[in-house]
Amino acid sequence: MLERLTEQFLEDEALTDGLSDEDASELVGWLIGIAEDLEAESNEMPEQYVGQLKRLGHELARIARRYGVPIEELIDLIEVAWEEPGQEQSPKPMQA
After folding, report:
1. Which of 17, 49, 53, 82 lies most in the core, judged by the most C-beta atoms within 10 Å?
2. Which value, to the nearest 10 degrees, does the dihedral of the CA atoms of residues 16, 21, 27, 28 take?
3. What is the pTM of this model?
4. Contact at 8 Å (CB) between 26 and 41?
5. Distance CA 84, CA 43 (A)
6. 91 Cβ partners below 8 Å, 6+ apart?
7. Computed over its alpha carbons, how large is the radius of gyration of the chain?
8. pLDDT in tens, 11-27
């Protein structure tokens, strides 16, 4: 399942269109990492999560293109928002 999911991310040109190679690689790698984590937790990857991850990736790519914000900075913002309340702050809250 994960190989098929990885192919879906890699074949979706809208995820990487207009991004530098570095930003495109960062974005796709991050999305695949999240998918791996979700699959490890439940031993399956529901299709609804695939769609949500793709939409999230499209929005991050759109913001990066429109405002010139590096993907890595956008990912860092999302990861800070995902931290559990009361959890000690770390320089890299979540690695995918």
Report:
1. 53
2. 80
3. 0.79
4. no
5. 23
6. none
7. 14
8. 888 899 999 999 999 99
pLDDT band at 53 (very low <50, low <70, confident <90, very high): very high
Predicted pLDDT at 64: 96
DSSP letter string over 56-81?
A: HHHHHHHHHHHH---HHHHHHHHHHH
Rounded CA-CA distance 67/93 in Å is 24
**pLDDT score of 40 more than 70:** yes
Number of Cβ atoms within 10 Å of the Cβ of 51? 10
Q: Is the pLDDT assigned to residue 70 strictly greater than 90? A: yes
- Residue 12 is classified by DSSP as -
- 53, burial (CB in 10 Å: exposed 0-12, middle 13-18, buried 19+): buried
* 30 in Cβ contact with 22 (< 8 Å): no
Tell me the two tokens of residue 77: 């913002």
Nearest of 57, 75, 50, 52 to residue 18 by alpha carbon: 57
